[in-house]
Amino acid sequence: KAGVTQTPRYLIKTRGQQVTLSCSPISGHRSVSWYQQTPGQGLQFLFEYFSETQRNKGNFPGRFSGRQFSNSRSEMNVSTLELGDSALYLCASSRDTLAKNIQYFGAGTRLSVL
Amino acid sequence: SQQGEEDPQALSIQEGENATMNCSYKTSINNLQWYRQNSGRGLVHLILIRSNEREKHSGRLRVTLDTSKKSSSLLITASRAADTASYFCATDARLGNYGGSQGNLIFGKGTKLSVKP
């Protein structure tokens, strides 16, 4: 079974631009969660999608948004990029987070904002 | 917000030695999980312990959970150079008094383990 796939692996953007990251979950997993990882703040939860609905949201500004498609693939978008958005963005999929919540992570997208 | 706090932040040992990492958390949980991350890559799930369990084993891993102290420990026995990684605890916080999950894991900041050959 293929794992969680995130694209692209690396991105370089400049302040003010916007970016879209993509995540393909493990086949059969309907929940997709997004996390931001930085050296200072660690791993912080962004949002979770289940069956195309945002089910849970972390404490991030509205510049961070996401969506999930009918095939469970998910995208997250960051608009008006700031230097502080430089981070490793991790996507994780789970069969059912409300039951056991073991999450399977992709390799991440490393975003650098210049 | 961060729930788990790992201790120590960094640990350096020789191959063959045991490594112990601790985690503290703040709220009621459904379960606590440990993940490993190799140098800037994705996290890999290691082990899950439910709130009504006190100890769990998986290969060279031993996890304990003390819900009265809101703490957990991960012991890696007979460590190998390949165990070099960052280790994170993650809590699945309980929603309300009747169980259920808030739906997201809350991660600590991790322990960076270095195993020297």
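Chain A touches chain B through 31 residues (CB under 8 Å).
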